[in-house]
Amino acid sequence: MLDRFKGFWQGVVLAPFVTLFIRLGISPDAVTLVGTLGVAAGALIFFPQGELLIGVLFITAFVFSDLVDGQMARRLGRSSKFGAFWDSTLDRIGDGAVFGGLVLYFAGPGDSMLYLSLSLYCVVMGSVTSYARARAESLGMDAKGGIAERADRLVLILVATGLGAIFGVPVLMYAALWILAVANTATVVYRVEKVRKQAVAADAAAGAQGPTQNRSAG
């Protein structure tokens, strides 16, 4: 959802913050770091104590840094490979902290081995989803797509957890975890299959080209 409405958030809602940070001389990489630290703090401090709503609100206040830093980099003309690497690396930390905080919640006040395990599964599969794409791109192939993009995963679990805490309906958070577990798995399978087809096609093309070259050489 953040990705789909990125233009509106960056161009209207968050534009004053972008302008202010630039005037203060704050770098986009610093915004990325502070945003990640805020997300991690909100998840790992409040969730384990059972303060789910406060944790969600705290995380939400920092999660928009993911849009602010990119817009700052574009305005300053500082878009770089390191910036992209830095942003992606810290995204993994932030995502891991959110679901790790839920793991600690279910190990403590949430008291559920089932949902502790499910939260842990979401941590792992979320990382695998991102890794599959990154590894495919490093090999010159495309692994985009699927039904569980990073922004969608984050929005779903935060909204479900926050609403569940407000209305006293924890089943919303439970349902979100099941949905994410299935969606993450489906996305990983989709990306693996997508890369497999590209790899098979590339190998077939290379195999067909080899004999042709040998005949020409002869």
Task: Describe this structure in a few short sentences.
The chain is mainly alpha-helical. The chain has nine helices and no strands.
Describe the structure.
With 218 residues, the protein is mostly helical. The protein contains nine helices and no strands. Helix content is 82%, strand content 0%. The chain is flat and about 65 Å long.
Number of helices: 9
- Main beta-sheet annotation: none
Instruction: Please provide the ordered H/E string of secondary-structure elements.
Output: HHHHHHHHH
Query: What fraction of the residues are assigned to beta strands by DSSP?
Result: under 5%
Residues in helix, %: over 70%
Please compute the radius of gyration using only Cα atoms. Answer: 21 Å
Structural category is mainly alpha
| Separation of the first and last Cα atoms | 58 Å
Poorly predicted runs of 5 or more residues:
214-218
Backbone shape: flat
pLDDT averaged over residues? 89
Total number of β-strand segments? 0
Supply the key terms.
218 residues, mainly alpha, disordered C terminus
Describe the secondary-structure layout.
Layout: H1 6-13, H2 15-23, H3 28-46, H4 52-63, H5 65-76, H6 81-107, H7 113-138, H8 150-167, H9 171-217
Helix pairs in contact: 2-5, 3-4, 3-5, 3-6, 4-8, 6-7, 7-9, 8-9
